[in-house]
Amino acid sequence: MNQSIRDAEQFVKENLGQDSTGHDWYHSDRVRKIAVHIAKKEQIGDCFIIELAALLHDIPDDKLHDNEETGLALLDTWFRRNNLPSFQVREIKQIIDSISYSEGQTVLPSIEAKIVQDADRIDALGAIGIARTFAYGGKKGQLLYDPAISVRDSMNKEEYRNGKSTSIHHFHEKLLKLTDMLHTDTAKAIAKERHQYMQQFLQQFNKEWDVLL
C-alpha cells in the first residue's frame, strides 16, 4: 500500500476516531471502499486520487470543528506531512471542496469528484444512513420528530445547517433525494436497495408514531 494512503488512514483515525456524529474513521473507510469499488467497476478515474480524497473528505468539514479555518488548517497539516505533487494536492482539495451536500448542486470538477460524492452519499443511505442520522441528531440536540414542523424544500447552507428541523425531517429534506442525485450506474444500483430500506423504515416509524396497532 502507498505510504500516503497509510498515513491518511492514521491521520483520520487520530482526528476523527472519537467522533460521535457519524463522521468517524469507519465512515471515511466505508466511503473509501465504496469509491474504489465504483471506480474499478466503472473503469474510470484515478484510484489513488479517489482513495485519498475519500479518506480525507471529512477532515476539513466545518460542522466537525469550531470554524471552517480550523478544519482547512488541519487538512493542510496532512499535506505538509506528505510530499505529493502540487497537481495531486490541487485535485484532492477540489474534490473535498465540492462534494458536500450543503454546497448545493455545484458543478463537480472531475469524474473523481463524482465518484467520491457518490460514495459519500451512499453511506448516508440504508441501515447505516438511518443510524448515522440519529447519531448526528442526538449529538446536536435535535428533536427525534415533531409533526408540527414543516419539511423544508429548499435551503441555503446556513438554513440547512442551523434551521429548525428534526431527525425524521432529515430523511425528507435530504436522504430520500440522494439516489436521484447520483452520477454513476454502479452507485445507483447500490443505492436502490438502501433507498427502499429507508422508505420501509419510515413507513414503520409513522405507524408506530401514530400508534396504529
Keywords:
213 residues; mainly alpha; Hypothetical protein af1432; 62% helix; 0% strand
Any overview of this molecule?
This protein has a single domain (3-209), classed as Hypothetical protein af1432. The chain has ten helices and no strands. Helix 2 (25-42) runs antiparallel to helix 3, helix 3 crosses helix 6 (111-122) and helix 5 packs across helix 6 (111-122). With 213 residues, the chain is mainly alpha-helical.
Strand count, sense and barrel status of the largest sheet are: none
State the helix count.
10
Number of strands: 0
What structural category characterises the helix and strand content? mainly alpha
Low-confidence stretches: none
Helix content: 55-70%
Shape: globular
Radius of gyration: 18 Å
Number of domains: 1
Instruction: Quote the distance from N terminus to C terminus.
Output: 55 Å
The CATH topology comes to Hypothetical protein af1432
- How large is the share of residues in beta strands? under 5%
Kindly state the mean pLDDT as a whole number? 93
The CATH architecture: Orthogonal Bundle
Q: Spell out the helices and strands N to C.
A: HHHHHHHHHH
**CATH class designation:** Mainly Alpha
